[in-house]
Predict the structure of LysR substrate-binding domain-containing protein.
Amino acid sequence: MDDLATATRDLRTHVEARPIVISTLPVFMEKWLTPYLSDFQNGHPDIRFRFDFHDGISTGGRGFSFGPDIDAMIVYVERPPEGFQSERLFGEKLVPVCSPTLRAAMPDTLTLRDILSQTRLQDTFWPDDWSVWARAMGHPGNLQAPELSFALYNGLIQSVKSGMGVAIGHSAMIRRELEAGDLVAFDAFAIDAPESYYFVTRRSLRNNPKLAAFWKWILKCSGNS
């Protein structure tokens, strides 16, 4: 009985000490979540995290992968996966963006052709942004591949800011750049993104008080509390 009690105590200590493991898109972590995290840590100094990353492709139209060591995922999908506890955080707009300098060199009244005639930049993990946007604009036929692609969203945004070309911006991920005037959005050409950001976990994990605290907090940050 003493051995059993010791083993139970050790297991409880291990579970309590184990960090919460959350898998998300690198861009979501960098551009949206990180600026808020200090607020959560200040209110919950006893909760530790480990953030893993997925590329977003495996959670799209080709299946949903939830690793055994993952407590929760923040995914970008059209609809939440079945068999899990999920909550929509928010959607966003897809909108062409460029630097203020490049915008000044373009016509005051823009046409679809004006935008497509510019050098097109793209994030490799969102390869369909240009084609999805162009179809919504009524563009006939298929677009040629963008001239430049970037594996990191921050690299894409820096290239747009430097005046290299036009990209399809994800409005929730570039809010600070737009507010600072570092990017100019062609708002008349904005569309609703087909996907939304969802917080997903196994239903059994919702009873985890530390995970539940993070769940409540991120919903508040996203405006869904």
Summary: Residues 124 and 151 are 5 Å apart (CA to CA). Confidence is low (pLDDT under 50) at residues 3-15, 57-62.
